[in-house]
Write a structure and sequence with these properties.
Structural class of chain A: mainly alpha
Distance between the termini of chain A: 36 Å
Radius of gyration of chain A: 22 Å
Helix content of chain B: 55-70%
Oligomer: heterodimer
Distance between the termini of chain B: 72 Å
Number of helices of chain B: 2
Strand content of chain B: under 5%
Shape of chain B: rod-shaped
Number of strands of chain B: 0
Radius of gyration of chain B: 24 Å
Order of helices and strands of chain A: HHHHHHHHHHHHHHHHH
Chain lengths: 442, 61
């Protein structure tokens, strides 16, 4: 019952990825049928809601990680449900009163705290339940976050359509309905999740005496872990992998239209397809990492990703939409895979004692990438267009930049090494008996 | 250790397990369906127009 409990929470908080469906209606709250300049909010004003929520996700995961480890997944999931759905309720009030401050506070700050808590809540528990397949276990939960976007966006559109009237765009009612539905769903997750007894092992599973991969049986405390080089190397690995992926994911529809001259509907279809691969890649690649080892799978993400990014300009030159879609789909699947594999990588290096808290601090890399990636794509492509490069070819340089970022990530990944034994927690196990093996095959 | 440990789903009946998975599978399936429907124009375009430059508006301009 643990995987569906984790999925229930992640499917709800993943709604943040679908927030863009509210952007345009929120610019018509006063005018309803059209946006009234000076009275209604503008798109940049509303756009801050999403940014604040993502920043708060990273900050709350980093700051509250230790609390999460102390109180366990059930209380954390409950707190996440209260914050996320309370934020939606406050946002509904903010729309009703047309107060942008309440919207920022509700959806952005309080909702963002709910996102951070909900994101890290089940990770440590899943790894403890599935010590034999930690990649698959965390991949399943984090797949839910990708799936949340697939549910949240159409649900928002349907609800706004149902509540729309002559005096309302339907957003405040949609927020209210979503708060109630999501709260019930998240409570299901909170009351279903359970932590395993200490020393739990699945039937028939015996940990290998001498693991051949980069795995420790010892534990590292969060306050020690974040001061070690492997933590910051993994921070770079996540940040660079996400920066490269988010650059293409955030601009997918526009990029497809500009590069191939397709219609907005086809561009939207392309973005939808990428969302599916983003979700599927999370479970596929992280499960595969249980077989290959974490270091090798990240090498695949970075090398294959760099090669595929470098191929994108060629697909534009020969005007092959099919090839472009295939290349982008594989790239995005590995972007999702990078998110889903990182908790298992952390578990390999730092053990499970403070895994949730360490994961929480690493998530700041995501917040950084969420700012860097889209800015990089926007800046480089705009610069190219201003200097006379045709619009369809303006993304080519960006693709090479992304390939370069992935090669930097490859360098960081290759430098990852086991945590020095002096950092191992003395109370949870004798570090001398901890089995640590340097990965030799990569 | 494993012999003395309860199975993770020992206390959960098959029915509650099935219900739990259905609870998460239904909304997820609906979301996937909506996304596939949204993606259809891409496949119609790919199969109908192929890579012919004539099929791209900006080429005609």
């Amino acid at each position: 019952l643990i995987p569906p409990a984790a999925l229930a929470v992640h499917l709800c908080i993943g709604e943040i990825y679908g927030f863009s469906v509210f952007n345009e209606p929120l610019t018509r709250v006063v005018g309803v049928s059209r946006s009234i300049e000076g009275s209604d909010w503008t798109i940049p004003t509303v756009g801050w809601v999403y940014s604040i929520a993502l920043i708060m996700l990273g900050l709350s995961a980093a700051v509250l990680g230790r609390w999460v480890e102390r109180v366990g997944p059930r209380k954390t999931m409950f707190a996440s449900a209260c914050a996320f759905c309370g934020g939606l309720l406050l946002s509904s009030l903010g729309v009703a009163l047309h107060s942008i401050g309440l919207l920022y506070l509700g959806y952005g700050v309080i909702g963002g705290i709910g996102l951070g808590l909900g994101y890290i809540a089940p990770v440590s528990t899943l790894v403890k339940w599935f010590p034999d397949r930690p990649g698959m276990a965390t991949g399943m939960a984090i797949m839910g976050f990708g799936g949340g976007a697939l549910i949240g966006a159409p649900l928002g559109v349907e609800l706004m359509g149902a509540f729309k009237s002559a005096s309302s765009v339907g957003v405040k009612e949609a927020f209210l309905a979503m708060a109630c539905v999501y709260f019930a769903f998240m409570l299901f997750g909170a009351f279903t999740v359970r932590v395993p007894p200490p020393g739990w092992r699945p039937e028939g599973y015996t940990p290998p005496a001498a693991p051949k991969k980069l795995v420790t049986h010892a534990h590292v405390a969060v306050d020690v872990a974040w001061k070690t080089p492997p933590f910051w190397l993994l921070w770079m690995v996540l940040c660079l992998n996400v920066t490269a992926g988010i650059g293409i994911l955030g601009q997918a529809s526009k990029m497809c239209q500009d590069m191939f001259g397709v219609s907005a509907a086809v561009g939207g279809g392309f973005a939808g397809l990428l969302s599916l691969f983003n979700m599927g890649g999370r479970i596929f690649w992280s499960s595969l990492s249980d077989v290959t080892g974490r270091k090798l799978i990240y090498c695949v993400y970075f090398v294959l990703g760099a090669v595929l990014y470098a191929l994108v300009p060629a697909t534009q030159r020969i005007q092959s939409v099919t090839l472009f879609v295939l290349v982008a789909a594989v790239i995005i699947s590995m972007y999702g895979g990078g998110f889903a594999t990182i908790p298992a990588y952390l578990r390999d290096l730092f053990g499970t004692m403070h895994l949730g808290a360490i994961h929480g601090r690493l998530i700041t890399a995501w917040s950084m990438a969420a700012v860097l990636g889209p800015q990089l794509v926007n800046y480089v492509s705009t610069y190219q267009v201003r200097h006379g490069v045709p619009k369809g070819e303006a993304y080519n340089l960006t693709m090479y930049v992304m390939a370069g970022l992935l090669l930097l990530g490859l360098g960081a990944n290759l430098l990852v090494h086991p945590v020095d034994e002096r950092h191992h927690d003395q109370e949870t196990g004798d570090p001398k008996t901890a089995v640590v093996a340097v990965e030799s095959e990569v | 250790m494993s012999a003395s440990n309860p199975s993770p789903d020992k206390n959960s009946s098959l029915l509650s397990l099935a219900i739990a998975w259905i609870v998460v599978a239904i909304p997820l399936g609906w979301g996937v369906y909506q996304t596939v429907v949204k993606s259809l124009p891409l496949f119609r375009m790919s199969s109908g127009a192929g890579a012919s430059p004539a099929s791209f508006p900006h080429q005609r301009r």
